[in-house]
Structure formats: C-alpha cells, structure tokens
Amino acid sequence: MTGYAPPGPDEGEPRRSPALARPYAWTEGRTAPSVDIAVEALVETTAAGRAELAYQSSSALAQVTELCIRPRSLMEVAALLGLPLGVVRVLVSDLMQERLVIVRDTLSDNSSWDDRHDLMERVLHGLRDL
C-alpha cells in the first residue's frame, strides 16, 4: 500500500511525514556557495544577525541564524537541520554576505602544532557534548 503512515497519537489520524523539498529549493536553485567553507569551520551569529532574528520569517536562513547564536560547526548545522551539507554551505555563505553570521576557520596551512592540538581538543569536547 503506498502512502501509508503509521497511526498518530490519536490513533484515528495517520501521522504526517515531514515535507521533503529538493535541495535546490532551499537555495533558490544555486548549488555552489560564494565562499568555500570547511566542514569543521565554526559559524556564529553576529550582533546584526541577532537583531535581524526578530524580523526574519521561519525560512532556512532564519533557522541557521538562530542555531548559530551558539557557535557551531558547519557539519553540526547541517545535521541539526537535516539538510545536505552543500545546501547549508550555500545558506551560510548567503548569511556571511549579509554579515548576519561570521565563519571562523579552524586551521590554515601554516597553523602550528598547538593550533591543531587545540582544534582536536575542541572537537573531542564537542563530541562529548553530543
């Protein structure tokens, strides 16, 4: 039987499945971000982004802005929203251009061993928090 959903809490009505939208629908057809963002990069909402939250609708951009009030990795944002990583990259790059979020790169090519060690500590701490 197609379209069957298990009974909901009231046992009379079927439980509704979440709406599935194609990834390009979230990004208005764009598939590539304007900036390359590493999966471990931390995304944080700026003061302007916090102020804008009061005026934003329930769009995906507003959801990202709200999630990133506390700094989160790009991968964590994608997981929490249940969206593909590529979609979240495009959304975050849009928010960066509007200065509603900032992205903190974790490491560069010339990062010291101490920088790399600190990153591993933060990742381990983040994993423990999950």
Task: Give an account of the 3D structure.
The chain has 130 residues and is mainly alpha-helical. The protein has 6 helices and 3 strands. The protein has helices at 23-26, 47-53, 60-67, 74-81, 85-97, 113-129; strands spanning 42-45, 72-73, 101-104. Strands 2-1-3 form a 3-stranded antiparallel beta sheet. Helix 4 (74-81) packs across helix 5 (85-97). It is globular and about 40 Å long. The termini are far apart.
Largest sheet: 3 strands, antiparallel
Total DSSP E strands = 3
The portion of residues forming beta strands comes to 5-15%
Number of DSSP helices? Answer: 6
Query: Shape, please?
Result: globular
Structure at a glance:
The protein is mostly helical and 130 residues long. 44% of the residues lie in helices and 8% in strands. The protein is built from six helices and three strands; from the N terminus they run H-E-H-H-E-H-H-E-H.
Topology readout:
Layout: H1 23-26, E1 42-45, H2 47-53, H3 60-67, E2 72-73, H4 74-81, H5 85-97, E3 101-104, H6 113-129
What brief labels describe this structure?
single chain, 130 residues, mainly alpha, 3-stranded antiparallel beta sheet, 6 helices, 44% helix, disordered N terminus
